[in-house]
Amino acid sequence: MTAYQSVMARKNEIMKKAVGIDYDRFELEGCAFDYERMMREVGYSLDEIKGIQQRTRVGRTPLIELRNINRLIKQISPAGKGGRLFLKDEAANPSGSFKDRRASVSVYQAAKLGYKGVIAATSGNYGAAVASQAAKYGLKCIIVQETFDSRFVGQPEIVEKARACEAFGAEVVQLSVGPELFYYFLVLLEETNYFNASLYTPFGIAGIETLGSEIGEQMKDLTGEFPDYVVVTHAGGGNLTGTARGLKRVGAERTKFIAASVDLRALHMASDVDFNRKSFTTGHTGFGIPFATFPDRSDVPRNAARPLRYMDDYLMITQGEVFYTTEMLAQLEGLQRGPAGNTSLCAAVALAREVPEGTTLVVQETEYTGAGKCPTAQLTFAKSNGIEVRHGRREDSVPGKNILIPRNPEELGYERVDMDALRASYIKQVIKQYQKTRFSETEIAFLQEDCRIDRQTLEHLTEKV
Amino acid sequence: MAQTAYKGTWVKISDTILKVGERAPNIPAETAKVPLVMHLNGFLLTDEAQLGDRATIETLSSRIVTGDLIEINPHYTHSFGRFIPELGEIGPHLRKALEKEVEK
Q1: What is the dihedral of CA A72, A77, A83, A87, to 10 degrees?
Q2: What CATH number is associated with residue A11?
Q3: What are phi and psi of B8, to 5 degrees?
Q4: Which residues does residue A426 pair with via DSSP β-bridges, in sequence order?
Q5: Residue B96 within a domain
């Protein structure tokens, strides 16, 4: 057995020790497990999370109406249409993104259980968030990131994240492209006995619930009502899951949750060549679709992020459209924020033109910006990797070949992901993972909940698969 | 640039984690034909090392790791990039659109 095989064979054992959760006790039967019981018994109450987050100044970020963008939306919408956008300015968190909410609960848990340090596998803002929280708790911190291709050329956005992590005192393990990052992550967990600050534990998700509850309360204050829509940048599914759960906790039963991802469907996420042909390192379909259709692919046995339970609609936009919207936010609202965090803003602008006047839409995050993670840096990098950058319409966009910048806001649009196709693909994964097509009553009830469909639709989709 | 680093200097090392042939099954061919490589920063523990030498470092989480010395006093060079004409015109264009509305 190679070193790789032997470490991978010990995966569950290593993981159990590194998160301090016995996932077995939530298993029901076959593909089914008791999700709500896991969230209840392992996670924290909303008040406890608020307390944990206030101690390290996480959360309670401003929510503002985007008045100038809303005037523009009115201008470009048909008569009687044009929603009002509100923005939750998550860049105001200590390390500059909503990821502080997730990290705050994970690192608190690590400190409470007596771990000496924390490890997280992430190339994104979560690394800086864990590093920042670890600094506050005096814990050691290792961030493992996929940084460069075999030429050692790194995505500027990821390199910036490494800089931020080091600035908070974390060790940054930088790896070349490949899914074996997970193997080395396990090696490090075994070597250090640190806590796995996974994005996908109940702590990581519970931490985001305050984002949802704050949105509910702030919108009530501003408009007297809960929002009609919340638009969420979707990658691993935690952002959507946590936000929706938080809003439901404060009573927002009618709010619709719209996922938004940058369309990178043509690019292979494990390809050494495709790696630097993308200009977004998160918030894209490369995570968004696989994590919706098979959440348990994550680094813990049972993923607490289960987006299909909460997702009402899923919109894809292009890289060029997000860069356009990032300029719009800076120039019309005086808010310079990172492009990846503006994925949901981009989809929300397009969606706002179609909904009746007065409809409220909350764009639920922003992220910090700076060298490496800003439109000019990312487009300069794209050009140096042979990507054509020019004016053009979304229909002609080909991820990995070109990035097309709209000429005017009317050109902002989206492509809808077929939700039933997504659910069918989830069922296909379950059939593949569990090697069966007949399910017990317990499993059927679980699948209905996990896909949010009735029994008839489940049977119909299973037959189709 | 200095070629020699002394004990205590902030350096970058490189090490191969998985050689070609040891990599995971089912990865794209272009990824399978190159090794999985790690870069890591830390303070040099070896008394003296030249670029390319094997060197041992202490990382920011106090781990002791050995690899090939590839950079002395490593720093970040990522930037704001160059001017992108297609982006530069967005702000003025949108502001004009709102100004017109006020005139109306």
Answers
A1: -30
A2: 3.40.50.1100
A3: 95, -10
A4: none
A5: no
* A23 touches A16 (CB < 8 A): yes
The total domain count for chain A is: 3
Q: How many domains does chain B have?
A: 1
For residue B24, the distance in angstroms to the closest alpha carbon of chain A comes to 7
pLDDT tens figures, B11-33: 999 999 999 999 999 899 999 99
Class of residue B100 by CB neighbours under 10 A (exposed 0-12, middle 13-18, buried 19+): exposed
Residues on chain B bordering chain A, Cβ-to-Cβ distance under 8 angstroms:
17-18, 22-24, 27-28, 30-31, 34-42, 59-63, 76, 78-84, 86-87, 90-91, 93-95, 97-98, 101
Domain of A151, in residue numbers = 3-52+98-196
State pLDDT tens for residues A45-64.
Answer: 999 999 999 999 999 999 99
Rounded CA gap, A15 and A300, in Å?
A: 7
Residue where a domain stops, chosen among A416, A440, A456: A416
Average pLDDT over every residue of B33-51:
97
Same domain, yes or no, for A370 and A327? yes
Contact A426/A450 with Cβ under 8 angstroms? Answer: yes
Residue A43 confidence (pLDDT): 79
Same domain, A171 and A83: no
Q: Does A192 touch chain B (CB under 8 A)?
A: yes
Once rounded to an integer, what is the mean pLDDT over residues A266-295? 91
Computed over its alpha carbons, how large is the radius of gyration of chain B? 24
Confidence check: pLDDT of B104 > 60: no
Residue A28 lies in a domain: yes
Q: What local confidence, expressed as pLDDT, does residue A12 receive?
A: 86
Of B76, B79, B78, B75, nearest to B11 by C-alpha is B75
A283 in the same domain as A339? yes
- Output the domain CATH number for residue B45: 2.30.30
* pLDDT bucket at A3, cuts 50 / 70 / 90: confident
Model pLDDT, residue A226: 98
Q: How far is CA A414 from CA A337, A347, A379, A423, in A?
A: 21, 7, 21, 20
Q: How far apart are CA B10 and CA B7, in angstroms?
A: 9
DSSP SS3 for A40: helix
Look at residue A423 and tell me if it is in a domain.
no
CA distance A425 to A441: 21
Structure-token pair, residue B98 = 């709102």
- Provide the β-strand partners of residue B65: B57
Residue B23 in domain: yes
Q: Which of B14, B39, B76, B90 to mutate to test the interface with A (most CBs of A within 10 A)?
A: B90
DSSP assignment letter at A284: B
Phi, then psi, of A419 in degrees rounded to 5: -65, -35
**Could you tell me the pLDDT band of residue B102, with boundaries at 50, 70 and 90?**
low
Task: Reduce the DSSP state of residue A341 to 3 states and report it.
Answer: helix
Both A85 and A8 in one domain: the answer is: no
Nearest to B82 among A68, A328, A380 (CB): A380
